[in-house]
Amino acid sequence: MAVTIYGIKNCDTMKKARSWLEDHDVAYEFHDYKGIGIDRAHLEAWIDQAGLDTVLNRAGTTFRKLPDAERENLTREKAIALMLDQPSMIKRPVLEAKDKLVIGFKPEIYAGTFGG
After folding, report:
1. Active-site residue among 6, 7, 11, 96?
2. CA 43 to CA 56: how far, in whole Å?
3. Record's Pfam families (predicted)?
4. Residue 11 among the catalytic residues
5. Are β-strands 94-97 and 3-7 bridged in parallel, bridged antiparallel, or unpaired?
6. 43, 107, 16, 6 alpha-carbon torsion, rounded to 10°
7. Are the C-beta atoms of residues 63 and 71 closer than 8 Å to each other?
């Protein structure tokens, strides 16, 4: 099963997710979207599958520091533009495993996804 985990290298939640995968012998590819970036196609697919409120990290510092005018009346298009410009606004981790998409990290959800 091809597994890719997207996020930011130094994020604590990312470290927990990557440790879980390693402890359960799940081979994965890591995509650092702060260092490498992320493309519009991924964001659109994730939003289509999981919803904007799941993909956009409104609780994060990067989003909260935005001027009120940028946070208000947030459309899908405006949110995608913000996340493309500042990938720290994407919730993490985002895990793609074959046809599954898991956003956020909870050990029990990973166990259900990988049977471990």
Report:
1. 11
2. 10
3. ArsC (PF03960)
4. yes
5. antiparallel
6. -20
7. yes
Token output for 51 = 């919803």
Model confidence pLDDT, tens digit, residues 25-60: 999 999 999 889 999 999 999 999 999 999 999 999
Whether residue 98 is predicted with pLDDT greater than 90 in this model: the reply is no
What SS3 state is found at 100? strand
Contact 100, 12 (CB under 8 A): no
At 93, which amino acid appears? Answer: P
* Mean pLDDT across 83-97: 95
**Beta-strand pair 94-97/29-32:** unpaired
Whether residue 16 is predicted with pLDDT greater than 70 in this model: the reply is yes
